[in-house]
Amino acid sequence: MPKDSVAIIGGTGDQGLGLAYRFGAAGRPVRIGSRKLDRAQAAADEVRKALPDADVTGGLNEDAVRAAAGGIVILSVPFEHTVGTLKALAPELGPGALVVSMGVPLATAVGDVAARTLGISQGSCAELCQSIAPEGVEIVSAFQNVSAHRLLALAQPVECDVIVSGAPAPRRRVMELCADIPGMRAIDGGPLYNARYVEQLTALLIGINIRYKLKDGAGLRITYV
Length: 225
Known about the structure:
CATH superfamily: NAD(P)-binding Rossmann-like Domain
Distance between the termini: 28 Å
Number of helices: 8
CATH architecture: 3-Layer(aba) Sandwich
Number of domains: 1
Strand content: 15-25%
Shape: globular
Low-confidence stretches: none
CATH topology: Rossmann fold
Largest sheet: 6 strands, parallel
Oligomer: single chain
Helix content: 25-40%
């Protein structure tokens, strides 16, 4: 069966670009979005150069969402740009659309260190997205704790678990994405409110990376599951 297409909004950043490489390598149609057309097209060209058979294109954010109609939209933008980006995409997101929140409210948004998070009233970036998403749009939390360096190292398995939270049916669709990436395993994280705990782990991992000087980034493994 044909695989869901994926629109990666913010796909020119390291983590979004890493996902574009991985999903493109798995034969999934990928639409890279950016606020700047030339950056999106350059990122798509970079992926196709490494993966000549990949179905990867670049465009403005709204064009990427339209091109992936019926597929999955992944928000890979810094926390401080999440609200503005999602509101700008709202006209392209009809009932039944599925949006993955990768955002983490890192304190860098206010000039503090990346190993801390900000308190937000909704509880998590994912829940913030759900509060402003158009009616009928499903938000799922995933991919916050996957190292960009490991995603970009195509020759190597990622070796990281991904905790996926959201409503049951959309959650299962996003968990299926993880099977595309060698070494990645999806862990059922339950309802969306559990995203607040997963997002906090990102700041913890950043601190570990700093203390242990881990250039390629630490990841998570949930044992006995």
